[in-house]
Prior knowledge:
- By secondary structure, the chain is α+β, with helices and mostly antiparallel strands.
- Helices cover 34% and strands 26% of the residues.
- The structure holds coenzyme A.
- Coenzyme A (COA) binds next to helix 4, strand 4, strand 6 and helix 7.
Amino acid sequence: MMANNLKVMRQALAQGEPFWTLTDSDIHIWVASLEMAHQFLDEPFTLLAPDERARAERFYFERDRNRFIAGRCLLRMIIGGYLGMDPSQIEFAYREAGKPVLKSGPQGKKLEFNLSHSNDLALYIFSRNHEVGIDVEYIHPMPDTDDFAEKFFSSHETELINSLRGEERDAAFFKLWTCKEALLKANGSGLTMPLSHMEISLNSDGSAALSSVGGNREQALRWHLQAFDPAPGYQAAFAVEGYKGQAISFCHINVE
Ligand SMILES: CC(C)(COP(=O)(O)OP(=O)(O)OC[C@H]1O[C@@H](n2cnc3c(N)ncnc32)[C@H](O)[C@@H]1OP(=O)(O)O)[C@@H](O)C(=O)NCCC(=O)NCCS
């Protein structure tokens, strides 16, 4: 069971011992409100590394700055809970297209992770040994869905979007979009790889599935893809490479 209360997390971190267990058979997903976390955390800036502080200072709007700071603090606190590390001592490295990874865990312990934020919501995904990616989007009416779909979606996906109207259309658009981004973030390429490379199908029960990668159906079998609603008004998806039926747990962070 994951402690999901920020006060409890903070107290447990002070002990310096791991307090969450993530085995090979687990995938953990964390959901948090960034405003809530920023209001609760004392001097969150002090947990950040110099490069993160510099990045925070470059934000023009205070709200965006606070959200970035809270997002990185929560990431550090959660990782600290898995590894038994002081959150401020965690070091990140960045792959070529920007995917953050752990520079080093204690005793070479592996931990794969990814994060995403949109509006007030932050999502995190963790696995011991599998590449993971996550994406969240705040659902809003998209006046230019047609242009987007034609540019970034496959012909099947575009057809699907064009067959829908209003809220249904927005919901389908964001479901496809988050699925694609989650996959691209899992393999670390981000938007450097065309979104149309991954063909997603939406099933009548609301679930999504990866049909092919670059036209290859075999390649799609390497991935577990799951769309979900993390909070009202948001759409999210996560992807796990080489998924072998691990237990997927969701945890909503609170301060109550
Ligand atoms: C990764 C990417 C898809 C993020 O899209 P987004 O919807 O704007 O942002 P999200 O909230 O979903 O994700 C942001 C997080 O993804 C992570 N991330 C960045 N690049 C990533 C990548 N290539 N793969 C996986 N995760 C990545 C970051 O940790 C970031 O969190 P942070 O703001 O705390 O640093 C997009 O930035 C991208 O494609 N980047 C790679 C290529 C690129 O454009 N580089 C810039 C050169 S001009």
